[in-house]
Amino acid sequence: MRQSHQLPLLGLLLFSLIPRQLCEIFEVSKNNYTDLNPLINTMINSKYTKGIQAANVLLSLRLGGILNQCQEQQLVQQVNLTVYYKASTLTSGQLALAILALGACKTPDETSIRYPNLVKNLRNKFKAEIKNMGKHNGNPLTNYYQLSLDVLALCLFRGKFSITQVAKIFEPGNKNFYFQGQFSVDTGAMAVLALTCVKNITNGKKKTDVENLNNINNHIKSLIEKILSQKKENGLLGNIYSTGEAMQALFVSSDYYNESKWDCQQTLDTVIMEIHKGAFRIPTAAAQILPALMGKTYLNVNKDSPCVYGPGDFNISTVEPITVTPPLSPSQIQVNYSVVIIEETHSTTVSVANGSVFLDVMEAAQKENATLFGFTVEERSWGPYITSVQGLTANNNNRTFWELLNNGQPLDQGVGSYIVHEGDNLEVRWSTY
Ligand code: B12
Ligand SMILES: *[C@@H]1O[C@H](CO)[C@@H](O)[C@H](O)[C@H]1NC(C)=O
Ligand SMILES: *[C@@H]1O[C@H](CO)[C@@H](O)[C@H](O)[C@H]1NC(C)=O
Ligand SMILES: *[C@@H]1O[C@H](CO)[C@@H](O)[C@H](O)[C@H]1NC(C)=O
Ligand SMILES: *[C@@H]1O[C@H](CO)[C@@H](O)[C@H](O)[C@H]1NC(C)=O
Ligand SMILES: *[C@@H]1O[C@H](CO)[C@@H](O)[C@H](O)[C@H]1NC(C)=O
Ligand SMILES: *[C@@H]1O[C@H](CO)[C@@H](O)[C@H](O)[C@H]1NC(C)=O
Ligand SMILES: *[C@@H]1O[C@H](CO)[C@@H](O)[C@H](O)[C@H]1NC(C)=O
Ligand SMILES: *[C@@H]1O[C@H](CO)[C@@H](O)[C@H](O)[C@H]1NC(C)=O
Ligand SMILES: *[C@@H]1O[C@H](CO)[C@@H](O)[C@H](O)[C@H]1NC(C)=O
């Protein structure tokens, strides 16, 4: 494989600015940058980078200082289209992500751009989330990962919000930090980033401020403990897809845990290994892991760092494209597939090409009997998301969703990514989270 590109100079400098106790990240050597190529390729070569996925990618590549002007313009255009023409259909967190991406770096002449209209719109969407919690048993329109993105964007871009309310909502015992009783590391990490920003803009003069600061400090400490308690043998925090954001949370919270509690290098080594195994083939997955690998966090977003351009820019066209999924082989495999709704189970055995994904199995079953195996699917930033099966639709107001399992174990990938194997017992189950 020929690798003839390099990261921009600023990228090199940034490596050396990472606080020492965190991670020795990469040695400044070309060898190490090539480890990141699969991520960058996935993000830049994706033909499907539009909408919110483009916001994820833009934010990530800007934080990394990896884009050239042309690539950046294309991505900004995609995000522009989404925020200016589809604003009303965006969820709160989608808009927040777009604001973070658009504001993630500034050329010297636009340091004052703060997207006041978008921020005002976000404020209204955030209010609607809170209102929904009041009406529907504490359940927001979306989820706490998105409420955290909202607070982060409002905080960084000078939107109005109540610090007292934030301190109250993000109480770590809140059920919205958990899915099926399990602490959600992604959600906790995003909340730590948001709370860290809020903490920093709160000056402790008034009595309520002192109380809020005290609460927020306690929340951060407790969330960090919960994140570290999800550390696996191999150093991952939660699973491979939550690790990047958990690393960001740990980077900004070094005052809240003992250094001996986290071996950053081990986490990093495992992530690099997983990059080479192809774990980050989805652009959003690549986008979420990259900043941490470059020692950056979402709090670095409006630090007035200019976008990095120049002759040393990463030359995308010299990079070999990666295959997105292994090729289908002509041989067929047999898998079991069941739809489970409470006590009622409908099963079938389907035959699909070796190398097929879960979605192919669902489509084969649907062809066989659309009454029993009919379903609807929507494209989201992580790929196809199952919204209904047998006409039964998932609903955030009562925390219902269609859960994916194999051999009784929940999958950590979606229907568009999980490659099925001979003898799999696949299941879509009507569940609550
Ligand atoms: C909240 C959440 C959920 C909620 C979504 C409903 C709600 N109340 O919002 C619930 C609990 C239902 C859920 C379900 C699942 N999730 Co989920 N979820 C998240 C979380 C924490 C935040 C998503 C979000 O709001 N992003 C921000 C907004 C701005 O982006 P968005 O694209 O508009 O968000 C929507 C989609 O992401 C979608 N969504 C949520 N999860 C998943 C998973 C997949 C595969 C897809 C395609 C879409 C999708 O719901 C979001 C709200 O509408 C992410 C964490 C992360 N790191 O991103 C995990 C995450 C995306 N989920 C994940 C997984 C694996 C699942 C499940 C497949 C689990 C399972 N075994 O069933 C199912 C989806 C099954 C299906 N029906 O297709 C993984 C995806 C990894 C991967 N490589 O694909 C993540 C990264 C968590 C992790 N660390 O493993 N999830
Ligand atoms: C970085 O590169 C050096 C030598 O080029 C290598 O020894 C080291 O293991 C690499 N680090 C990582 C995290 O891959
Ligand atoms: C995106 O929108 C902003 C604000 O309307 C505009 O100034 C900018 O030129 C647009 N950028 C692109 C690449 O379309
Ligand atoms: C805290 O806020 C100040 C300005 O109020 C800013 O200069 C500083 O970078 C912020 N620190 C963090 C960690 O965000
Ligand atoms: C950190 O952990 C080490 C080893 O477990 C211990 O010796 C040290 O006292 C701890 N420091 C703090 C500040 O808790
Ligand atoms: C980038 O790659 C293209 C095609 O391989 C080449 O023509 C161009 O000169 C390269 N640019 C830089 C800056 O290396
Ligand atoms: C499916 O393909 C994989 C490699 O792509 C191979 O190892 C496996 O034996 C194949 N299974 C069948 C049943 O053909
Ligand atoms: C689908 O399954 C249902 C229930 O078993 C059955 O009544 C129906 O005839 C089947 N439809 C087809 C097209 O096989
Ligand atoms: C959830 O809400 C939907 C729509 O309001 C309703 O059809 C469904 O029966 C509810 N499910 C549960 C488990 O309460
Ligand atoms: C498919 O499921 C049925 C019923 O659950 C089970 O008896 C059978 O062994 C399964 N087949 C395979 C290949 O696992």
TrEMBL record:
It is found in: Secreted. Residues 1-23 form the signal peptide. Residues 355-431 form the Transcobalamin-like C-terminal domain. The keyword Protease does not apply. It comes from the Eukaryota. Its main location: secreted. InterPro entries: Cbl-bd_prot, Cobalamin_Transport, Transcobalamin-like_C. Keywords: Cobalt, Cobalt transport, Ion transport, Secreted, Signal, Transport. PANTHER family: TRANSCOBALAMIN-1, TRANSCOBALAMIN-1/GASTRIC INTRINSIC FACTOR. This is Transcobalamin-like C-terminal domain-containing protein. It comes from Felis catus. The lineage of its organism: Eukaryota, Metazoa, Chordata, Craniata, Vertebrata.
